[in-house]
Amino acid sequence: MFEIILKKQLAPNVKLIEVKTPLIAKKALPGQFVILRVHEKGERIPLTIADKNLEKESITIVFQEVGKTTKLLGRLGVGDKISDIVGPLGNPSEIEKFGVVIGVGGGVGIAALYPILKGLKEKGNYVISIIGGRSSDYVIFREEIKNISDEIYITTDDGSLGRKGLVTDVLKEILEERKIDRIWAVGPTIMMKVVSDLTKNYGVPTIVSLNPIMVDGTGMCGGCRVTVGDKIKFTCIDGPEFDGHLVDFDELLARLKTYKEEEALALRLFEESEVGKVGHSKN
């Protein structure tokens, strides 16, 4: 059992929890993730490690409440315990001195991008960050990203913070003017596809962190398979980071819809059961 020692609301339906996990905190590196179950009969879900604290022996996880399991996780508070957490899983990011690097983050992917950029900055890279969201409420980790960036650009769909537009608008302008050595993109799959399509035209190596359907995290189930450069890869053991120019994003986007109906049904039944509990408590 793993105790939650800190909880924050970062944005509508987006929460941060810090969990005491001594062994995982000791070994975790940028780019890696964990798989957790809220309770012993619960669904296994992969979540990226956004940060770690060796003194507190803890890791930080940021998640968006979109389905039954993430809503259950979001209801836990400080002092509550998570049934099991496995990790760190996946290959760590390649953190080296590249020169000038750009990190592009969207939605909760901004939190996952943070430890990668932090590691790149510590290696002496010149770090440019481009982060965005639907509105100012959804652009999380702004101060954290700002503190480890040489330049930071913010975009929002409605213009309520930073520049109105998409992260790729800013990225394209920078690519037109300057030499960039490497790019990381972490966020919605469609965002990573658009970033990769853009940077391919400029020949800039681009790394994406994929988050497909995943079950066991050991390469046994095959649920997280993706096509990269005409080869089948398993995100949990071969990734989660891949060359964005080689990923078959169209196939990945289609696979992400595989269990949409089942996920919607599970969420509806869960919400109906919660309404029933409220009604029962009133009687």
From TrEMBL:
* Listed SUPFAM superfamilies: Ferredoxin reductase-like, C-terminal NADP-linked domain, Riboflavin synthase domain-like
Binding residue positions for FAD? 62-64
Question: What does the UniProt keyword field contain?
Answer: 2Fe-2S, FAD, Flavoprotein, Iron, Iron-sulfur, Metal-binding
- Which one Pfam family would you cite for this protein? DHODB_Fe-S_bind
The cofactors named for this UniProt entry are: FAD; [2Fe-2S] cluster
Q: Note the PROSITE patterns from the entry.
A: FAD_FR
Residues that bind [2Fe-2S] cluster: 221, 224, 236
GO annotations under biological process? pyrimidine nucleotide biosynthetic process
- Give start-end of the signal peptide: none
**Cofactor note text:** Binds 1 FAD per subunit.
Database matches in PANTHER family? DIHYDROOROTATE DEHYDROGENASE B (NAD(+)), ELECTRON TRANSFER SUBUNIT, DIHYDROOROTATE DEHYDROGENASE B (NAD(+)), ELECTRON TRANSFER SUBUNIT-RELATED
**Name the UniProt record assigns to this protein:** Sulfide/dihydroorotate dehydrogenase-like FAD/NAD-binding protein
